[in-house]
Each structure stands twice: as structure tokens, then as C-alpha cells.
Amino acid sequence: MSFFEPDPKSGYKTVYDRPPIEQDLNVFERIREGCKQFKEEFGVFMGEVREHFRNDPIIVYRPNEVDVVWRFNGDPKSLDQWVVTCDSDHEEGFSTAKLEMSSTGTGIFSGVLSTRLPKDGRIKYAGYCNITTIPKYKSFKREINHDWTPYTHLILRVRGDGRSYAINLSTKGMYDLTWNDMYQYVLFTRGGPYWQYTRIPFSKFVFASKGRVQDRQNPIELNEIRNFGITLADDVSGHFKLEIDYIGLECDMYNVEESAYEGYDQTGIRF
After folding, report:
1. Quick one: 98 and 41 in the same domain?
2. pLDDT digits (tens, 9 = 90+) for 78-108
3. 8 Å CB contact between 200 and 167
């Protein structure tokens, strides 16, 4: 039994679609490259300072007004904001997945889900494909969280294939006990040519860790959102396709619910 996990990825190696270029630099070339990066990051830092002083905060969040967070909008660079993974990346299955741009400028998450098990006697369950946003950074490579405190709903405009997908909101904390904390909600898609507009209250998300729903349900800390992801793991082998237009946020002043699930005060109760 281990009381500490030294690796946030639990031993899984990072798999790249496009591996980073490895440079064999001497000491002076490293210094020159470091100065170049410092100049770039300092420019980003000064931009953040200027933005802070001329900040125009939103005073009133109007209902039915969606603030878009991620949108493909025909820009190939928008694909770089996402990471695609599946069980075959770690030799734990045979599923394949990809994220690409459609002819109309939307994002298409597609592939083949396979529940076939590798014959190694180690894997008991297989069949998942996932896309996740990359972490958000400030200047000098400082990782920060998304702050969605003023909002009450997650908005998605998607066109599905009739399969069920899981929406994931990662709230990874500082300590190893919270590295796998995640809030999930099932996205039921409709087949056919029509777009669907999905409006999910944050209070409906279920708290889970390492894929297991926790007995004690807590409201989402909306100022600690690290990543957004979509997972397919419905145990049905075959092709899948989910087209995504945008993912956004909405504030509903009449929605005051923090958690839709019952919580019990067990103080003083003896079982």
C-alpha cells in the first residue's frame, strides 16, 4: 500500500502526436536560447500588466448570453489546444482516435472504439478514447486554473452519432490525493444531421476520482478548473464521430443550486 504517488500520471508516459524537436545545444547556445525565451516571456508578462490596468470587468452577466471558451472556427491552430489519447497509446487496447478540422471549420473527434483486450493477462477492461484541453499558462510558463465562478452552466453546441460521451472537468489539486479529482456528466447525443445545443448546470456534475464515483459529493470549485475533456467509453465497439462547434459558459441568475445530490451530516452518528 502506497501513501504517496510521486508521479501525477501514475507511471503513464507522455505520448506525442508530433514529438517536440530535440536540440543538441552547447552551453553558449543554451544561454542564447534562454535569453530569447526570456525576451518572449517578458513581452507576455508586460501584456498581462497592461491588461490588468485597463481591465474592463463584466459587471452584469446577462442570461442566455454565451461566453465561448473554446471554438475551432476554421483555425488549424485551435487543434493545438487539445490532446488526443486512447488505450492503444499505452498498449492497453486497440482503440484509435483523432481530432481534425472539418470542411466547415468545426472540430471532429472521431475514430474506432475497440473493447478487445490485449492477450497479456494484465488488462481486464479496454475501450476508451479521449480529448482534453492543454493546461492554461501565464507568462514564464506559470500554470493557472480557469476561473468560472460567475457562471452556472456549461454550454456545448455539438453534432453527435447517438452515442453517450462523458464530459470531464478536472480539478487537480496540489497534493497527490487530489491529482485525479474530476467532475463528470454524461452527454447524450442524437444521431442525424441536426446540431444540438446542450446546457448543463454545474450542480449536476458528479464528483469522481480515478474513474470511481465518490460517496461524498461536493460542489465544483469553479475557480479551480484545470482541464476540460470529452471521453467515449460506452463499452460498444465501433466507429464514432462527434462534431464540435464551440464550448462556452452561461450565467443564470435564477439557478442557485450548488449540488443536485443529497449530502448528509454524519457528525455524531454511530453505525
Report:
1. no
2. 998 999 999 998 888 999 999 999 999 999 9
3. yes
